[in-house]
């Protein structure tokens, strides 16, 4: 992967995290495609409108979100970014925290990376396959 792609994907991830913490569906929409899907261990695939509806209603809020990137793979107009994410917030008024592995699938739209799919898995241990930001083209 060239350095420009790496920098652009890392910037897209940072923007996505910041948008989630803003709790503003319009800001989040700037980072995702209309057909974005979130896949969670608890609920399976959730369409964008379901997730954005929870955020718009205040049922789901994020206070913090940090991600350590372990792997990026640029396939031209599609790329994947895998990392470990910790976040905190509230769901239906109750405090929540999460520590998960996250793979975001991006597609280049009008020259910018937009997320089409986010897949979450519980983080049960440390990675065996390398250090942060290792990439294998």
Tally of separate helices:
3
As a percent range, the share of strand residues is: over 45%
How many β strands by DSSP? 6
Taking the sheet with the most strands, its summary is: 6 strands, mixed
Q: So what's the CATH class? A: Alpha Beta
Q: What is the terminal-to-terminal distance?
A: 6 Å
Q: Which term fits the overall shape? A: globular
What is the name of the CATH topology?
Answer: Nuclear Transport Factor 2, Chain: A
CATH architecture: Roll
Helix content: 25-40%
What is the chain-wise order of helices and strands?
A: HHEEHEEEE
Low-confidence stretches: none
What structural class do helix, strand and pairing data support?
Answer: alpha+beta
Radius of gyration: 14 Å
Arithmetic mean of pLDDT: 92
Strand arrangement within the widest β-sheet reads 2-1-6-5-4-3
Organism: Methyloceanibacter methanicus
InterPro entries: DUF4440 (IPR027843), NTF2-like_dom_sf (IPR032710)
Protein name: DUF4440 domain-containing protein
Domain DUF4440: 9-115
Would you give an account of this structure?
By secondary structure, this protein is α+β, with helices and mostly antiparallel strands. It has a single domain (3-122), classed as Nuclear Transport Factor 2, Chain: A, CATH 3.10.450. The chain has helices at residues 3-22, 25-29, 48-57, and strands at 32-40, 44-47, 60-74, 78-91, 94-109, 112-122. The protein has a six-stranded mixed beta sheet, covered by helices on one side. It is globular and about 45 Å long. Residues 9-115 form the DUF4440 domain. This is DUF4440 domain-containing protein. Pfam families: DUF4440.
């Amino acid at each position: 992967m060239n350095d420009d792609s790496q920098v652009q994907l890392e910037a897209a991830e940072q923007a996505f995290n910041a948008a989630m913490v803003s709790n503003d569906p319009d800001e989040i929409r700037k980072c995702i495609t209309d057909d974005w899907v979130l896949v969670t261990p608890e609920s399976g695939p959730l369409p964008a409108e379901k997730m954005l509806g929870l955020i718009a209603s205040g049922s789901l809020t994020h206070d913090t979100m940090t991600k350590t990137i372990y792997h990026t793979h640029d396939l031209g107009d599609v790329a994947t970014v895998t990392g470990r994410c910790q976040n905190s917030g509230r769901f239906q008024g109750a405090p929540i925290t999460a520590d998960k592995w996250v793979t975001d699938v991006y597609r280049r739209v009008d020259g910018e990376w937009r997320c089409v799919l986010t897949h979450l898995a519980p983080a049960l241990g440390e990675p065996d396959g390398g250090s942060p930001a290792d990439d294998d083209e």
